[in-house]
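The instructor's notes for this session suggest beginning with a concrete chain rather than abstract definitions. Hand out the sequence below and ask the class to guess, before any prediction is shown, which regions might be ordered.
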Amino acid sequence: MNALKIKTLCFDYEEAFKSEFLVDFKLETNDGVVLNAHKLILVIRSEVFKAMLTDDSKEVEKGFLTIPDFDSKTMKEVLRFMYCNKVENLDEIARDLILAAEKYQLDGLREICIESIIRTLSTENVVKSLMISQGLSKAEKLFKECAELIIRYEQNGEFLSFLKIISFKEI
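After discussion, reveal the predicted structure:
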């Protein structure tokens, strides 16, 4: 497939994401926002949605699924990734988005979230990032980067300063 056809295909999927044309499924997030989707996209991009939407469940019948674990900001970016293979404001939401990527088995999304988290590691977020890495599959690289940052502070004799800086309210 040449580059022009791929670009056109990506544009078409992005337009489908943005529009309500032929929407056949809705997702209600934990903050009460209802997001539009197409079952076909959900099923071909996520094995979890495939399992949920290919049985005779109430959700399939109603064309509606409640998502209790994630807010609309997170799920909108999950959907954007599923349609367009991109995410807006990744560095700001990667720590929330990675949990959704894990739940819905979106390996590509998980990978870009890990890269974003590593790129933005700091004393303020390393503990939360380390804890997140423990709950994920295939996140050894994130765990290693978090641990190395903490060890660097300890080796430089700055561990007490580090403990004063880290944000325990994020935990």
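Then share the key points. The CA atoms of residues 16 and 83 lie 8 Å apart. The chain has a mean pLDDT of 85.
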